[in-house]
Amino acid sequence: MKIDLSFSHSYEFRVLDELPTRKKIYYYPGASNYGGSDGLLVELNSFSDDPWVGVFAFGNVSPKGITGIYTLPNPDKLCIVSRGQGYLVSIKSPTDWNKVDLIPVMDVLTILPHGIIVFANYTEIIAYDAFGIKWETGQLAWDGFKITEVTNNYMIGEYSESEKKFKVDLLTGKLVIN
User: Fold this and answer.
1) Is 69 helix (H, G, I), strand (E, B) or coil?
2) Half-sphere exposure (Cβ direction) of 78: Cα atoms closer than 13 Å
3) Contact (CB, 8 A) for 78 and 56
4) Which among 163, 29, 15 has a CA at the least distance from the CA of 98?
5) What's the predicted TM-score (pTM) here?
6) Which of 78, 81, 106, 147 is least surrounded, with the fewest CB atoms within 10 Å of its CB?
7) DSSP secondary-structure letter at 59?
């Protein structure tokens, strides 16, 4: 599991091995208090309210989907990726949440100078800033691309089809070369 605390944040968390007793529990997707699917267990504490536990359902699209916890450009929100399924959750309001609009999540990059977090699956990339989705690339390849470098202005990568390269503008998400 990867943990990336690059963005400033106003909370603490810890990964749990089992469900605790006497804590408020939310099951994602849905933020239900009445049960849900098995998933990654995370206790969250905003310091202003009682800590609560999130059960973040495992993704079921790819067994190679990543698992990780990432701070976001919004200091009151957190991203949990559970076997390829991404969740964006408000720590202070657990019912305020969204799925990452990309599945399965195969890679996550924090790009601090641009205030974005980038998610990649097998064929496309999506970036979020403090307000939500900043840009989407659309399909860059048919399968199997990988990000190889991030510069001040671009994200560069390659894909398996004839070993082609791509270059994406970090401000707009536009494909610069193909």
Assistant:
1) strand
2) 25
3) no
4) 29
5) 0.93
6) 147
7) P
Number of CB atoms found within 10 A of residue 176's CB:
13
State which amino acid sits at residue 20: P
Tokens 């400033």 belong to residue: 8
Domains in the chain: how many in total? Answer: 1
- Give 10-residue mean pLDDT values along the chain (178 residues): 96 95 93 93 90 95 90 97 97 96 95 96 94 94 83 88 81 84
CB 49 within 8 A of CB 110: no
Q: In the prediction, which pLDDT does 178 show? A: 54
Amino acid at 47: F
Residue that is written with structure tokens 């310091």 in the block? 47
Domain of 42?
2-177
User: According to the model, what pLDDT value does residue 61 have?
Assistant: 83
For 162, other C-beta atoms within 10 Å of its C-beta total 5
The whole-angstrom separation of Cα 82 and Cα 88 is 12
Q: Are 104 and 65 in contact (CB under 8 A)?
A: yes
The tokens describing 172, both together, are 């707009």
Query: What single string gives the DSSP state of each residue in 134-162?
Result: EEE-----SS-EEEEEE-SSEEEEEETGG
Quote the longest CA-to-CA distance of the chain.
56
Q: Which of 166, 132, 135 is nearest to 148 (CA)?
A: 166
